[in-house]
Amino acid sequence: MVDGGGGAMMVTRFKGALLIVASVLAALACWSAFSAWLPSGLGRHREYGEAAPCPGRAPVQRYEDCLRTVTFTVEGTDIPRAKKKGYRATLSGTPFWDGAVAFGDRDPLLTELRPGDRVTGTVWRGQVMTIAGGGARQSTTDEPRDEPQMPVALGTGAGLLAVLGLVFGSALMLRPGRRERFVWQPYGRRLLITTVSASFLAGLLGVGTGLPWWLVPAVAVLVVWAGAVLIYGWDRPEGDMPRTGIF
């Protein structure tokens, strides 16, 4: 039979192993963000900016690697009060691109549209990029944007979570009896919240201020490092016993 102490250590090691598995998955997410998501977004935005206008002849296929200007008729709009439901306009009058088009906001044009209105649309690679009418122009959610900061921030966050999971998991597996600094309360939970929050906010900061995307990881790492210093100094005044417990 395994005594209580031995059983607790086995449970701790098992949880450490789970953390290491989770860290591998997070590392794969980080690798995917930097090796696939980021290059794809940057490349698509560059190609869109370099695309030439389509020839004047009538389109013969849905997908064209050029900018096609077409005229749509507005069939209706969907502008819910809750933004999370999305904004849409239903368009018709073209050979291939009729249907619902999604927008990230209700302004500057969507709220002004009424059924029967005529708008000018820009189509690229089979998708509506923008619509314009009445002196206003609005981008759809399909238009490539020069905003790589958020993918970089999320990839950085995944990498930091991979490191966090690896460190905690290794500590629980290799030193299950001395885990004071690697417990969920307070350290693990606070580090997790700090890492996720710092990564997300660094992405928002980068998008909002135009911060170069290659500086976003430095901001996120610096904030997480500072947070870790504060977290490990917060509950450890001299003479206090460390908290105990396991995940």
Task: Spell out the blueprint of helices and strands.
Blueprint: H1 4-50, E1 68-78, E2 87-92, E3 99-103, E4 118-124, E5 127-133, E6 136-139, H2 149-174, H3 184-209, H4 216-234
Antiparallel strand pairs: 1-2, 1-4, 2-3, 4-5, 5-6
H-E string: HEEEEEEHHH
Query: C-alpha Rg, in Å?
Result: 26 Å
- Strand portion, in percent? 15-25%
The description of the largest β-sheet is: 6 strands, antiparallel
Number of helices: 4
Give the overall shape: elongated
Short description:
The protein has four helices and six strands.
Structural summary, described in words:
The protein has 247 residues and is of the alpha+beta class. The protein contains 4 helices and 6 strands; from the N terminus they run H-E-E-E-E-E-E-H-H-H. The protein has a 6-stranded antiparallel beta sheet with strand order 3-2-1-4-5-6, with no helix packed on it. Helix 1 runs antiparallel to helix 2. The chain is elongated and about 75 Å long.
Quickly list its features:
single chain, alpha+beta, disordered C terminus, elongated, 247 residues, 4 helices, 6-stranded antiparallel beta sheet
